[in-house]
Amino acid sequence: MPPSPGLVESRRPTLSVIASLLRNPLQALPPEVYRERLVLAKTGGRTSLYVCDPALIQEALTRQAGKLGKGELIRKVLGPAIGEGLLTADGGHWRWQRQAVASGFQHEKLLGFLPAMIEAAEATRGRWQAATTPLDIGHEMMRTTFDIIIETMLSGAQALDVGKVEQAISDYLEPSNFMFLYNLFGLPGWLPYPGRAKARASVTYLRENLRALVAQRRAEPPEHGDLLDMLLASVDPETGRAMSDEEIVDNLLTFVTAGHETTALGLAWTFHLLAQHRDWEARVLEEIAAVTEGGPLQPRHVASLPLTKAVFQEAMRLFPPAPVITREVEEPFTLGGVALKQGWVLYVPIQAVHRHEKLWEQPERFDPSRFLSEAGRGRHRYAYLPFGAGPRICIGSAFATMEAVAILAVLLPALRLEPLPGQAPEPTLKITLRPKHPLQMRASARG
Ligand code: HEM
Description:
Layout: E1 7-9, H1 14-23, E2 38-43, E3 46-51, H2 54-63, E4 68-69, H3 71-82, H4 91-102, H5 107-130, E5 135-136, H6 137-153, H7 162-173, H8 176-184, H9 196-218, H10 227-233, H11 245-258, H12 261-276, H13 278-292, H14 306-318, E6 325-329, E7 333-335, E8 338-340, E9 345-348, H15 350-353, H16 397-411, E10 415-419, E11 427-430, E12 432-435, E13 440-445
Parallel strand pairs: 1-2, 3-9
Antiparallel strand pairs: 2-3, 4-6, 5-13, 6-9, 7-8, 10-13, 11-12
Helix pairs in contact: 3-8, 5-6, 5-16, 6-12, 7-9, 9-11, 12-14, 12-16
The structure holds protoporphyrin IX containing FE.
Protoporphyrin IX containing FE binds at residues 86-87, 98, 254-255, 258-259, 262-263, 266, 321-322, 325, 386-388, 392, 394-396, 399-400.
């Protein structure tokens, strides 16, 4: 390959990559991604290009988006659970599904979800006030955001058991590093790995329950005005056909999982960071008190809490819930002087871009002021991309941000969270960025 400015080749021995993938795939990222623009890696039979330069990320995810697909790797890992729903589909099938649900994410519609978001946060506050033992904050946030996604998007699904869904998602994601490893080295999918049976059982549980919901709703008039009604009514503009039950289940499962797990993780990391940075917590409390005048949070308050939002944004910079974007090159093109060939894997390592030493001053430091007015000027727009970018940008980004601010503004003024001593949480990559061990904290009422 002709030399390209800013391109480095990672020369980590294959065995060390495998060991990291098994231990914590976050450490399998080539270390160069935290300081270079483009990093090439050859592992197994695959060539991968890590794109860390914001201008090149923009080029790849926007102008060249049509030459990139979600790829075999992602489809093999996520496909057994979410089939070819909105997150995993490509081309015309993706476009149809995106259009089918787009109206559900318009600003006005989202504002209508705020009362349900506040109510779910208030229920969590009640649980925390009554708690006598330490709380698993990750689990608590999963419960809260799960209640919200079901209440706002899937009426009739209240019978789904949040505990079982959470367990099923964890069981599915737990062996995801093995699935990646097998695919990277072209090993056959039938080879055993730890957790495989549990992962399969979890998919059966989730899909069977959603199938029953679709059958029930097909028998009812479409008057819920929710996501499921939109999917049931949608018609493919290319073929004129409606979605099959299995395609609808693909999407419901996509939204139930993508729509609550990521936000919950972002919030769990936010509570962790605020407990380490009480000065910022005090500023957030001041802002909330000024806006609510000490009364209960109202939907109209949520848009007036820029500092609370900045804290959540900064938490997602340090701990992006979806830390790596993966694409496969379907049509060759040139990026930053590098000729990408069909079949190459392109990674945008969001986690590394967010901590890149050439893009951020003191990248490891928690400093929400980076997201307040002036501070962000001069920074490339694609240096920060917790929700991805281009046509495949997260459809739920505004939903998630609104929800997170509402949850923080209900919980923080009522309760102070104290981490249990001796805990330094380790983030681990299981498709999403999860704490390796539960984030245990003790809640006490604020005086
Ligand atoms: C803090 C919370 C969230 C984060 C960090 C996040 C992150 C992301 C990212 C990075 C992508 C792009 C993946 C790629 O390009 O390969 C994505 C896509 C997606 N997200 Fe989110 N997400 C969040 C919340 C949500 C919510 C609340 C929903 C739904 C209510 C949602 C639904 C989706 C869907 C359906 C896609 C696929 C979109 C497409 O390909 O057209 N996400 N998300």
